[in-house]
């Protein structure tokens, strides 16, 4: 007798056999102003669209719909800010009112459907309100993470060409206040595009001067604004642009549409995260990342849950018990964060003394993503929490998990190190260099068969060509994830890491290219490379290697400090670049390609193979010695067969 298929098997098979039927059924859970003409529109393949012709509004579905259905008094947002000692609960009805007014503010300063609005703000409810205000009137928001420097903000302003910027007087880090106004002013000084207005949220801990004629006080504008209703938009119209690191210094503007996004996110809340309307869902991330967009702002409210907006860190606000306090106090059902947050807690509280002070029995599951969940962290979290600990894999581009243990369908036994199986809607394959499917347990390029499901990126902002070239060209018919990995004999996926020049630092995806761009702008630097080296807390940390221009005689320590500051100023503190080494040459192939992968293996102390095309093998000895000066390059240290 064979086992009957699991709920996961049935859902997976249904999404494979007839994706249009599967997603059309999921879409029925939303309010549509006009029904779609085509569920999957393949007329411009390989650029696919979902629900074309349909009209709806994301803000209406996430907020107004629930107020109309009797959820007005329920908490929509719980703001918990240990850094300002503030707590505030906003009901769905209050949120509707505030979002409608904020949309009125935007309208009053000329923002219309399709216009872009840059949001450079901290973890305050106003950020979420600003995002929904854009959605309400069909404007396209682009949130820029507060840890990025003015140059990165300027690059995004020039690409998105916003009519307006929403900002605040400051953000608050554990040890310091981060005044945003000088950063914004600097960005606007260097950007070629000039937005007409900046709406500034003044925070009591640090107020700022407003620039006459340009800046508008957020609170004042809200008091006089007329609330505006939701505008129906096409399902295929953009809801937002979120920039993510590319392999060059120019970030990629991931576009998210309205219809497919709402359908997919709502579906995941029940089927992946297993939460019900009314449950409290907490994604401890930042609005500036994809996790923040999808699982702080949109998905929990689409599902009628309560979302937690936490302005704090896993440690230091005030201690390693901060997360447990929030869970207990707000009755959190599901926590979603990055493994690095748990490693930070584990480092400060290895035996769970802080944990023991709180009752977190309300928590039903912990979901982790953003980087590989190493088995040690998995076991530690599992033993501490005594609840399911779910590793799931996704990217800014997909916007929702590609692989997960779907708790709302079937809970599979966990294999530490694996995000379990592809989520219904995704066909994940492992291909070799020549595009041939690899058998189980063989590592290769992780790809997703086209078309991607709804909610994933339809393209890059105003750049179909870059989208096609970056993601769809290497293996025709597939989306290239940029990750390497394998699928085992039970169908479990294992993601082993990036195969390009993107590094994962504390759960953030960063481009070594943009750091190299900053380093090479220094007058004394002839050439440079940045490699991501292994780190016990943050997974990877960037290390810079620079070759100086001929005749430059400078103290390496002094120069290194200057270069670290340069990256901080140009890319931002979030880059985490703290070490720059001066070397006489970079290892290269005969065709001039810098051997970053080999350098990384040397730094990590992994076994490595002498690249057959290397120009001068001796350069690697100098690199190993340089890494050794900062405590790296410990391990086999010699080339396999070299
Ligand atoms: N605005 C300004 N600066 C910021 C910032 C922001 N929003 N966020 C981070 N920074 C700064 C930090 O203050 C730090 O500056 P420093 O070099 O002066 O110390 C620097 O950027 C590096 O930040 P980070 O890598 O986040 O290190 P951290 O020590 O501040 O915190 C963790 C480490 C692990 C606690 C933190 O990264 C974390 O909570 N990560 C997991 C959650 C998460 O956000 N994941 C994202 C996807 S799920
Ligand atoms: P980002 O776009 O910043 O979300 O980063 C996406 C990248 O993070 C992926 O391509 C992976 O390299 C990595 N990543 C995210 N989640 C996981 C996971 N659960 N396991 C392994 N790697 C992950």
UniProtKB/TrEMBL annotation:
Report the sequence similarity comment from the record.
Belongs to the ATP-dependent AMP-binding enzyme family.
Query: Residue limits of the Acetyl-coenzyme A synthetase N-terminal domain?
Result: 8-62
Q: Which PROSITE patterns match?
A: AMP_BINDING
What is the top-level taxon of the source organism? Bacteria
- A GO molecular-function annotation: propionate-CoA ligase activity
Domain AMP-dependent synthetase/ligase positions:
73-450
The UniProt record lists the AMP-binding enzyme C-terminal domain at: 515-593
Protein's recorded name: Propionyl-CoA synthetase
**Which Gene Ontology cellular component terms are annotated?**
intracellular organelle lumen
Q: Tell me, what's a Pfam family for it?
A: ACAS_N
């Amino acid at each position: 007798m064979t086992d009957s298929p699991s709920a996961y098997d049935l859902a997976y098979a249904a999404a494979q056999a007839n994706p249009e039927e599967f997603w059309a059924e999921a879409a029925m859970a939303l309010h549509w102003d006009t029904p779609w003409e085509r569920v999957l529109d393949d007329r411009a393949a390989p650029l696919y669209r979902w629900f074309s012709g349909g009209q709806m509004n994301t803000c209406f579905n996430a907020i107004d719909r629930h107020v109309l259905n009797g959820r007005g008094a329920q908490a929509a947002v719980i703001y918990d800010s240990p850094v300002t000692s503030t707590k505030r609960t906003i009901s769905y009805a209050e949120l509707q009112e505030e979002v409608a007014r904020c949309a009125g503010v935007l309208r009053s300063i000329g923002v219309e459907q399709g216009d872009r609005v840059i949001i450079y703000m901290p973890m305050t409810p106003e950020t979420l309100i600003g995002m929904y205000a854009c959605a309400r009137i069909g404007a396209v928001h682009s949130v820029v993470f507060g840890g990025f420097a003015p140059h990165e903000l300027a690059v995004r302003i020039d690409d998105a060409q916003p009519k307006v910027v929403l900002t605040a007087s400051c953000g608050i880090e554990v040890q310091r206040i981060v005044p945003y106004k000088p950063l914004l002013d600097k960005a606007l000084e260097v950007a070629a595009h000039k937005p007409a207005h900046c709406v500034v949220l003044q925070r009591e801990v640090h107020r700022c001067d407003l620039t006459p004629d340009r800046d508008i006080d957020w609170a004042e504008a809200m008091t006089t604004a007329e609330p505006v209703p939701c505008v129906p938009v096409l399902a295929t119209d953009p809801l937002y642009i979120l920039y993510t690191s590319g392999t060059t210094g120019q970030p990629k503007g991931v576009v998210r549409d309205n219809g497919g996004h709402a359908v997919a996110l709502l579906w995941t809340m029940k089927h992946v995260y297993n939460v019900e309307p009314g449950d409290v869902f907490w994604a401890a991330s930042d609005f500036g990342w994809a996790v923040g967009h999808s699982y702080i702002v949109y998905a929990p409210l689409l599902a009628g849950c309560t979302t937690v907006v936490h302005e704090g860190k896993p440690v230091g606000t005030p201690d390693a018990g901060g997360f447990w306090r929030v869970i207990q106090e707000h009755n959190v059902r599901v926590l979603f964060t990055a493994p690095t947050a748990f490693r930070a807690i584990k480092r400060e509280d290895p035996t769970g003394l802080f944990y023991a002070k709180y009752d977190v029995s309300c928590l039903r599951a912990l979901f982790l993503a953003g980087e590989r969940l190493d088995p040690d962290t998995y076991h530690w979290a599992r033993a501490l929490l005594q609840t399911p600990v779910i590793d799931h894999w996704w990217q800014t581009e997909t916007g929702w998990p590609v692989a997960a243990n779907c708790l709302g369908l079937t809970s599979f036994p966990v294999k530490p190190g694996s995000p379990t199986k592809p989520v219904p809607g995704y066909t994940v394959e492992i291909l070799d260099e020549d595009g041939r499917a690899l058998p189980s347990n063989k590592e290769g390029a992780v790809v997703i068969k086209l078309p991607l499901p709804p909610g994933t990126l339809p393209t890059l902002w105003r750049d179909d060509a870059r989208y096609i070239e970056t993601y769809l060209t290497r293996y025709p018919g597939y989306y290239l994830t940029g990750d390497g990995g394998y699928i085992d004999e039970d169908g479990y996926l294992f993601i082993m890491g990036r195969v390009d020049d993107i590094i994962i630092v504390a759960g953030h995806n960063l481009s070594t290219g943009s750091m190299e761009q900053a380093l090479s702008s220094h007058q004394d630097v002839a050439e440079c490379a940045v490699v991501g080296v292994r780190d016990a807390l943050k997974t990877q940390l960037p290390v810079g290697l620079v070759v100086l221009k001929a005749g430059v005689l400078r103290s390496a320590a002094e120069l290194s400090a200057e270069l670290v500051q340069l990256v901080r100023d140009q890319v931002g503190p979030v880059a985490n670049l703290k070490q720059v080494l001066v070397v006489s040459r970079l290892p290269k192939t005969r065709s001039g390609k810098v051997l970053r992968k080999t350098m990384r293996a040397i730094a990590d102390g992994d076994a490595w193979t002498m690249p057959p095309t290397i120009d001068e093998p001796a350069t690697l000895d100098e690199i190993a010695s340089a890494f050794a000066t900062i405590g790296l390059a410990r391990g086999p240290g010699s080339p396999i067969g070299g």
